[in-house]
Amino acid sequence: MAKFYPTLTPALQSFIAAQHVFFVATAPHQGRVNLSPKGVDTFRCLGDRAFAYLDLTGSGNETAAHVNENGRLTVMFCSFGSEPTILRLYGRARVVRPADSDWESLAAPFPVLPGTRQIVRADLLEAQTSCGYGVPHYEWVGPRTRWQEWAEQKGAAGLAAYRQQKNQQSIDGLPAYPHDL
User: With 90 as the cut, is the pLDDT of residue 178 above it?
Assistant: First the structure.
């Protein structure tokens, strides 16, 4: 049975900290819904009413384009362990980039990773748990290292060129960056 929370309680924050993967969903007013899996120790609770994740360079930049357009963001965690739980965080988000004035304070709790593109920071509107009985049980094996190897091989200049080529707009043509990088 679904239960709603106005804040990220200590129990919800503990659940989040124990998860190795989360999913981010956004949608423009018109166009395609985007759903992206995330991991690599990139999610942080910023108290009981806010959260953020470190967004790494990837093949697209849908989340930034959608958040820039309307601010809507849903994050989902699901337990693949013995306790079946799904947690959704509904929020109003904004994208923070390295040149922004609040970058240093927001980036402080995250690991330094090559290819870091931006931080998506959100104010919690509501959290919702549900049972997760239909989610299969999986065992955690460990993180993948291929993304970090790819980012290190590209280097700062290569990543900047990649973002310029692949991350400037959504697949529906919405701008992902309000200004040139």
Answer: no
Q: What is the mean pLDDT of residues 70-98?
A: 96
pLDDT at 100 over 50: yes
Cα–Cα distance between 37 and 24 in angstroms, integer?
6
Confidence of residue 175 (pLDDT cuts 50, 70, 90): very high
Q: Which top CATH class is 3-166?
A: mainly beta
Contact (Cβ atoms closer than 8 angstroms) between residue 38 and residue 23:
yes
Q: What pairs with residue 118 in β-bridges?
A: 55
Question: 151: which residues sit within 8 A by CB, 6+ positions away?
Answer: 56, 57, 113, 114, 115, 159
Structure tokens at 165: 């080529």
Percent of the chain with pLDDT over 90: 89
Where are the chain's structural domains? Answer: 3-166
User: Counting Cβ atoms within 10 Å, is residue 141 exposed (0-12), middle (13-18) or buried (19+)?
Assistant: exposed
Separation of alpha carbons 20 and 70, rounded Å: 28
What's the CA gap between 18 and 14, in Å, rounded? 6
Query: H or E stretch including 125?
Result: strand 116-130
**pLDDT category of residue 180 using cuts at 50, 70 and 90:** low
